[in-house]
UniProtKB/TrEMBL annotation:
<keyword id="KW-0328">Glycosyltransferase</keyword>
<keyword id="KW-1133">Transmembrane helix</keyword>
<keyword id="KW-0808">Transferase</keyword>
<keyword id="KW-0472">Membrane</keyword>
<dbReference type="GO" id="GO:0000506">
    <property type="term" value="C:glycosylphosphatidylinositol-N-acetylglucosaminyltransferase (GPI-GnT) complex"/>
</dbReference>
<keyword id="KW-0337">GPI-anchor biosynthesis</keyword>
<comment type="pathway">
    <text>Glycolipid biosynthesis; glycosylphosphatidylinositol-anchor biosynthesis.</text>
</comment>
<keyword id="KW-0812">Transmembrane</keyword>
<dbReference type="GO" id="GO:0016757">
    <property type="term" value="F:glycosyltransferase activity"/>
</dbReference>
<dbReference type="InterPro" id="IPR009450">
    <property type="entry name" value="Plno_GlcNAc_GPI2"/>
</dbReference>
<dbReference type="GO" id="GO:0006506">
    <property type="term" value="P:GPI anchor biosynthetic process"/>
</dbReference>
<comment type="similarity">
    <text>Belongs to the PIGC family.</text>
</comment>
<protein>
    <submittedName>
        <fullName>Phosphatidylinositol N-acetylglucosaminyltransferase subunit C-like</fullName>
    </submittedName>
</protein>
<dbReference type="Pfam" id="PF06432">
    <property type="entry name" value="GPI2"/>
</dbReference>
Length: 255
């Protein structure tokens, strides 16, 4: 008979709320990044920002982030810069040349269907993104591919090829390059993750509120659930764990 205040645990891991909340910031960062990408599309769609302005802003932010990234990789800095510049030139030329095709690629598909496909693809990006935990569904390649597919869908609903070009560029910066930057910063400066999480959340929230106050409230509630509510549930439910059987963290409830 096991007392209610005593739990015989074998190889169980004890979770603490603030540690779990800090780890959940990785999910929050990806949600905020996704919101920023969607807002870039909405801003161009409503003509609140021009493609050239958005391209310039994203280029400046990416350049600064890249310099920080390179400064934390001293051993391969020179080689990385040369290779990355070549890859950048090829990617920009390739994307610019294909932007007219991307814009007209889905003309025969209704707008409602395009938006539904985009929501599904971006949702899969969140689901399959690598948050630092192993799992069968985790796939960096699949996560990136779904995000790029979603960006191509959105690009086809913008008025010009320059809009489509900038949409794809921003998608690659947010979904391909930014996660690498966040991982590098996390390794070199572990204490900066809270600042990164809350900084991205504030920027994403402000950008959403300028378009829709209701959507901003929904985003705030979703982020609150990710950062606070879900970690709280995890910590509260760990009292019911008695043992771990095999690779799965299986809960065995005593009666």
């Amino acid at each position: 008979m096991i007392n209610d205040n005593f739990y015989f645990t074998v190889y169980t891991r004890t979770y603490h709320f603030w540690n779990v909340s800090d780890a959940a910031g990785t999910v929050s960062q990806q949600v905020s990044s996704l919101c920023l990408f969607v807002m870039s599309f909405v801003y161009m769609k409503r003509e609140l920002v021009s493609p050239s302005t958005l391209f310039l802003i994203s280029a400046v932010v990416t350049s600064i982030s890249y310099c920080i990234y390179i400064m934390t990789c001293w051993e391969q800095r020179t080689k990385n810069v040369k290779d990355d510049i070549k890859s950048l030139i090829l990617f920009l030329a390739f994307s610019f040349g294909l932007s007219p095709i991307l814009r007209t690629l889905t003309d025969s598909i209704s707008t409602d269907t395009i938006y539904a496909m985009t929501v599904f693809m971006l949702g899969m990006n969140l689901l399959m993104h690598d948050y630092g935990a192993s799992g069968a569904i985790v796939s960096k390649a699949a996560s990136l591919n779904t995000a790029i597919f979603g960006s191509v869908c959105l690009a086809s609903r913008l008025p010009s090829s320059s809009h489509a070009f900038v949409t794809v560029i921003v998608a690659v910066e947010i979904f391909a390059l930014f996660p690498l930057f966040r991982e590098q910063i996390k390794v070199c400066f572990p204490g900066s993750q809270s600042m990164m999480t809350w900084g991205l959340l504030v920027v994403a929230l402000v950008s959403v509120v300028t378009i829709s106050f209701l959507a901003g409230i929904f985003l705030l509630l979703a982020q609150t659930a990710v950062i606070f509510l879900c970690p709280y549930w995890l910590v509260r439910l760990q009292r019911y764990k008695d043992n771990i059987h095999g690779p799965w963290d299986e809960a065995v409830i005593s009666t």
